[in-house]
């Protein structure tokens, strides 16, 4: 994860947008002015990094797409805090938004005491639905300081550990570029060195990195999935090692 100081011009822009437009149009869990400010500041900072226009409230609801990058619909989710992000923190996602045709979620945290936005990490929609914990409206959630709050709507919580981290904006773009360039359908099939064909679903992708020579893909999956994959990866290699060798004549 990495930090981005919020420019004063972005803060002024977001304040003006809130004065001009109503950003609470869902009718449920719309959030107060402060919460809406947190959301559009996070979205505007990320848009600015990508060289895209800042939030414009005159265009109406975004339909689950805050920015479009290389045909990938990215929804930016920002939580407001007064402290720096810690590894065990969680990120919230409202259940009523899961029907939107979003491809990726990018989670951020706005430190309102320092006006610094932390870009925490990203994940696919499929992985989000798998890795997040669901909480019904009215359930109590507990904070580090011992306080608690009641959920105001059905929501999902995903821990930071389930997100693909980036060390810088450049690293984030590399990851998104590589992810976009993978030959995705519902799954990706490729041949490994053992000669076996391996199929990986999109939600199994944890992160992608650009190495010195070749890009690498990191997978996250259940123990059962991992065992099956390892069996495929090493099947032919193991068969060759275990086959009886010809006796010298």
Strand order of the largest sheet: 1-6-5-3-2
Supply the helix-strand structural class. Answer: alpha+beta
Rg, alpha carbons: 22 Å
Estimate percent helicity: 25-40%
How much strand content do the residues show? 25-35%
Structure description:
The protein is an alpha+beta fold and 249 residues long. The chain has helices at 8-20, 33-49, 125-131, 169-181, 223-242; strands at residues 2-5, 67-69, 72-81, 90-94, 104-111, 116-124, 133-135, 140-142, 148-150, 155-159, 187-191, 197-201, 205-210, 215-219. It folds into two domains: 2-168, no CATH class; 182-242, no CATH class. The chain is 28% helix and 30% strand. The strands form five sheets. The chain has a five-stranded mixed beta sheet. Helix 1 (8-20) packs across helix 2 (33-49). The termini are far apart.
Write the layout of secondary structure elements.
Blueprint: E1 2-5, H1 8-20, H2 33-49, E2 67-69, E3 72-81, E4 90-94, E5 104-111, E6 116-124, H3 125-131, E7 133-135, E8 140-142, E9 148-150, E10 155-159, H4 169-181, E11 187-191, E12 197-201, E13 205-210, E14 215-219, H5 223-242
Quickly describe the structure.
This protein is an alpha+beta fold and 249 residues long. The chain folds into 2 domains: 2-168, no CATH class; 182-242, no CATH class.
What descriptive keywords fit this protein?
alpha+beta, 2 domains, three-stranded antiparallel beta sheet, disordered C terminus
């Amino acid at each position: 994860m990495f930090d981005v100081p919020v420019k004063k011009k972005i803060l002024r822009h977001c304040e003006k947008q809130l004065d001009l437009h109503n950003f609470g149009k869902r009718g449920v869990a719309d959030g107060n002015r402060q919460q809406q400010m947190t959301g559009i500041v996070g979205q505007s900072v990320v848009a600015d990094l990508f060289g895209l226009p800042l939030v414009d409230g005159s265009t109406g609801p975004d339909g689950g797409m805050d920015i479009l990058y290389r045909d990938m619909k990215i929804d930016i989710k920002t939580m407001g805090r007064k402290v720096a992000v810690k590894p065990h923190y969680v990120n919230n996602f409202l259940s009523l938004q899961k029907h939107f045709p979003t491809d990726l979620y990018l989670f951020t945290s706005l430190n309102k005491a320092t006006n610094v936005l932390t870009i925490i990490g990203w994940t696919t929609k499929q992985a989000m639905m798998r890795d997040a914990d669901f909480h019904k409206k009215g359930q109590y959630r507990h904070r580090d300081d011992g306080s608690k709050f009641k959920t105001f709507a059905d929501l999902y919580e995903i821990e930071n550990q389930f997100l693909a981290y980036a060390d810088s904006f450049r690293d984030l773009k590399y990851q998104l570029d590589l992810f976009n360039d993978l030959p995705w359908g519902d799954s990706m099939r490729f041949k490994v060195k053992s000669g076996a064909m391996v199929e990986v679903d999109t939600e199994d992708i944890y992160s992608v990195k650009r190495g010195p020579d070749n890009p690498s893909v990191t997978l996250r999956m259940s123990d059962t999935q991992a065992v099956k994959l390892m069996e495929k990866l090493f099947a032919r290699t193991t068969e060759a090692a275990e086959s009886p060798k010809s006796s010298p004549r």
